[in-house]
UniProtKB/TrEMBL annotation:
It comes from Janibacter alkaliphilus. The gene is ffh. It is an enzyme of class 3 (hydrolase). NCBIfam families: ffh. The keyword Nucleotide-binding applies. Residues 160-180 are annotated as: Disordered. It comes from the Bacteria. The keyword RNA-binding applies. It catalyses: GTP + H2O = GDP + phosphate + H(+). Composed of three domains: the N-terminal N domain, which is responsible for interactions with the ribosome, the central G domain, which binds GTP, and the C-terminal M domain, which binds the RNA and the signal sequence of the RNC. Keywords: Cytoplasm, GTP-binding, Hydrolase, Nucleotide-binding, Ribonucleoprotein, RNA-binding, Signal recognition particle. One of its GO terms (biological process) is SRP-dependent cotranslational protein targeting to membrane. Its main location: cytoplasm. GO terms for cellular component: signal recognition particle. This is Signal recognition particle protein.
């Protein structure tokens, strides 16, 4: 995400590097470059204007002319203004004082609402909540089934009306009981909240219908649902790929339903980022979540400061660490550390566990992109073949239990068998074993306080 905008901006700053003073024409040129970069990234014009005039004003002021390193200072200003445009402080869900907290999702069809409902449900469950998804999208024949599938995948209960039954009864993940009258989305939403109350779900996520384009009926329906259920949060889900159209759509929803926060979806695609920079700026509503893929785990809390940092290729190490913490199962990291300190051998079983955790964190590429300076290596990163991981995993899985814990005993015939079992060349198995041996050695050395070879040892 934001790759080309990021490339352009970092390119602009390169021209400033090494300059002891910035002349007026340096500033003008920089502001012009930033302006072009933003326009090319599909940022809406009013936002571009607001942004560049803020940067220009500050860049010609005392904070830059008196700075020791003017280029750094300009980057700092651009960073701060980006954070501002993206909404300033991180905003997360505000919970109702008395449960259930009601969260309503609105947006165009295909924007990613249903997928997001599942992701948010899973995330909240992980945080100890007991969410219920409510299928109030009765427009699209498949929407209810889709939400049920999403709910199942996310491990979250779904409340849905029975299909084709306008006066029907509820069918809650197979636990349906009683008969209530609803066939309309408002009725379903209300019934969903009742259900949450009686089954003690503390959060209700209501998925509403979308249309391919903004239309009056859609707005009326969403607005009726809103009036009926009085949600604590109304999240407007928008596809980051729709570029310039984002602002218009967001404004229509703001007028028609109004929302408390924005969810940017499909940020994993090659969206040019304009939507992100424009929507918060024009509606004054914060972006609260980013949706970054089709899997349940592909959801991030949107932190304006971290996002700005990513755009400027300053990395986002905090998000990386949080993802790692989430990916390792409870106690797994401690167990790894205990083994490490006890100088027990690092085995292929440990290795498999680590690979699984890394996989849970998402793609290696997306993780590497969060490292500072990595944005400029995007071509190399794109060339990286994630399947390499699968090959390694296949080799380890072809090892016997004994082999995994005694890698040194893997002789020639065992190597040939492993290669056959995993469909690779023997040379690849050799390479894996050699690297693994080296890794084991390095770990031992580090555990003994020797530090990383070639680096000064750590005191204590
Ligand atoms: P809805 O009509 O608003 O409920 O949209 P859906 O949740 O059905 O999503 C529409 C399509 O976009 C589906 O094919 C999803 O798999 C896909 N999708 C949703 N969110 C994301 C995302 O963050 N990244 C990507 N790449 N695809 C997504």
């Amino acid at each position: 995400m934001f790759t080309s905008l990021s490339d352009r901006l970092t390119g602009t700053f390169k021209n400033l590097r090494g300059k002891g003073r910035l002349s007026e024409s340096d500033v003008n040129k920089t502001v012009r470059d930033i302006r072009m970069a933003l326009i090319d990234a599909d940022v809406s014009l009013p936002v571009v204007k607001q942004f560049t005039s803020a940067v220009r004003e500050r860049a010609t002021g005392a904070e830059v002319s008196q700075a020791l390193n003017p280029a750094q200072q300009v980057i700092k200003i651009v960073n701060e203004e980006l954070v501002e445009i993206l909404g300033g402080n991180t905003r997360t869900i505000t919970y109702a004082k008395r449960p259930p907290t009601v969260i309503m999702l609105a947006g165009l069809q295909g924007s990613g609402k249903t997928t997001f409902a599942g992701k948010l449900g899973a995330r909240l469950k992980e945080e100890g909540h007991t969410p219920l998804l409510v299928a109030a999208d009765l427009q699209r024949p498949n929407a209810v089934t889709q939400l049920e599938v999403v709910g199942q995948r996310a491990g979250v209960s779904v409340f849905a009306p029975e299909r084709g039954n306008t006066g029907g009864h509820d069918a809650v993940s197979g636990t349906g009981e009683g008969t209530r009258s609803f066939g309309d989305p408002v009725g379903v939403s209300r019934a969903g909240i009742q259900e949450a109350l009686s089954r003690q779900h503390d959060v209700v996520i209501v998925d509403t219908a979308g249309r391919l384009a903004v239309d009056a009926d859609l707005m009326q329906q969403a607005s009726d649902i809103r009036a009926a259920i009085e949600p604590d949060e109304v999240l407007f889900v928008i596809d980051a790929m729709i570029g310039q159209a984002a602002v218009e759509t967001a404004q229509a929803f703001q007028e028609g339903v109004d929302f408390t926060g924005v969810v940017l979806s499909k940020l994993d695609g090659d969206a040019r980022g304009g939507a992100a920079l424009s929507v918060a700026g024009t509606t004054g509503r914060p972006i609260m979540f980013a949706s970054t893929g089709e899997q349940v785990k592909d959801i991030e809390v949107f932190h304006p400061d971290r996002m700005a940092s990513r755009i400027l290729d300053m990395g986002d190490v905090l998000t990386l660490i949080e993802q790692a913490e989430r990916a390792f199962e409870r106690g797994q990291a401690e167990e790894m550390q205990r083994k490490f300190l006890a100088e027990e051998d690092f085995t292929f079983d440990d290795f498999l566990q680590q690979m699984a955790a890394i996989k849970r964190m998402g793609s290696l590429k997306s993780m590497l992109k969060m490292m500072p300076g990595m944005g400029q290596m995007s071509a190399e990163l794109d060339a990286f073949d994630e399947r390499q991981f699968d090959r390694i995993e296949a080799m380890v899985q072809s090892m016997t239990r004994f082999e995994r814990t005694h890698p040194k005993q893997i002789n020639g015939s065992r190597r040939a068998r492993i290669a056959r079992g995993s469909g690779v060349e023997v040379s690849e198995v050799n390479q894996l074993l050699e690297r693994f041996g080296q890794a084991q050695k390095v770990m031992k050395q580090m555990a003994r306080g020797g530090g990383v070879p070639g680096m000064p040892g750590m005191p204590g």
